[in-house]
Design goal:
single chain, about 325 residues, alpha/beta, Rossmann fold, 2 domains, six-stranded parallel beta sheet, about 15% strand
Length: about 325
């Protein structure tokens, strides 16, 4: 049993898919340190989502990102970490940046630290960690730090009023966006429009999800498939989780929202090209089907529809 005076820091900065896949480890840390004061350090977009999970007593925003030579900023950041009086830190980001936070806490006594920082007390000592899927990698990291039971990500706590969207059921979620600098990860919008029309013909309402950066693709799909519900830039992470809990199926590219949707329990078809490896980063959930094609431009709508129908038939 952890003493009440123990203070635990969890570091998880992003991105969305990585944050979602860290929810299981976060829950395991919370349970293992049941009597402790648990603080999360994360990026601004995930603050409200993290607070809603009730896994943390405090959520800190990772705002200062000093370079090593910016001594004044480094010292302010060091003082912030020191003021937390943490007894243990779980670095679930395991990046050069988060390891830098370990090093600025020296010289002298540092908190126990689970991560990959050189000299930390509980290193994830597996040379092949970079070849592991995120879920297995974080589970093994926590096992090496003394936490043996790590559940799958759970979003049953998510609450949101999706009634304001007035979506006719049954509906399907379409996620045609992705990182703008990685266009090879996107199935063409014209293919999504074809799929949306197929859904409409079967009595399934397509719901388009994405940010303002993806409004071009969403507008094209909505124009070519009248009857879609276009929620471009109208949803937050909690909305996505609740929409997923109530959807019949979801189809999308390898992008953050599909991690959240799959983890929420929605039957999900995720489209992969050569540009990412599902062995390392595939969406996880109770019903996930990965469809992979070297180039997504060559992936026919009929193959995606067949995968979608196979998932629906399992219900």
């Amino acid at each position: 049993m952890t003493l009440k005076q123990d203070r635990i820091l969890v570091i998880k900065l992003g991105a969305l898919g990585d944050f979602v896949q860290a929810l299981g480890p976060m829950a395991a840390i919370r349970r293992h340190h049941a009597g402790a004061h648990v603080v999360l350090l994360t990026a601004k977009p995930y603050v409200e989502f993290a607070k809603a999970s009730n896994l943390f007593d405090e959520v800190w925003v990772d705002e200062e990102r000093p370079k090593a030579w910016q001594i004044g900023q480094v010292m302010r950041l060091r003082h912030k970490f020191k003021s937390g009086a943490f007894t243990r830190v779980y670095d679930l980001q395991t990046s050069d940046r988060s390891s830098f936070y370990f090093h600025i806490l020296g010289p002298g006594k540092r908190p126990e630290w689970s991560g990959i920082a050189l000299g930390c007390s509980h290193p994830h000592a597996n040379r092949d960690r970079g070849k592991m899927h995120t879920i297995e990698r974080q589970r093994e990291q926590l096992q090496m730090a003394g936490i043996s039971e790590v559940p799958a990500p759970d979003l049953s706590w998510a609450k949101a009023d999706i009634g304001r969207f007035a979506i006719a059921k049954p509906y399907a979620l379409l996620v045609p966006g992705g990182a703008p600098h990685r266009p090879a990860k996107r199935w063409p919008a014209s293919h999504y429009a074809q799929l949306a029309n197929h859904m409409l013909a079967e009595g399934l309402t397509p719901v388009l999800l994405g940010t303002r950066a993806e409004q071009g693709e969403l507008h094209l799909i909505a124009h070519d498939a009248p009857g879609c519900v276009n929620l471009c830039a109208k949803t937050d992470f909690l909305d996505l989780a609740v929409l997923a809990q109530n959807a019949q199926v979801a189809v999308g590219n390898d992008t953050g929202p599909m991690h959240l949707i799959a983890a929420a329990g929605c039957a999900s078809v995720v489209l992969y090209s050569h540009d990412s490896d599902p062995a390392l980063c595939a969406q996880r959930g109770p019903r996930v089907k990965i469809v992979r094609q070297e180039s997504l431009e060559n992936l026919p709508e009929s193959e995606v529809w067949a995968a979608l129908r196979a998932l629906i038939s399992q219900d």
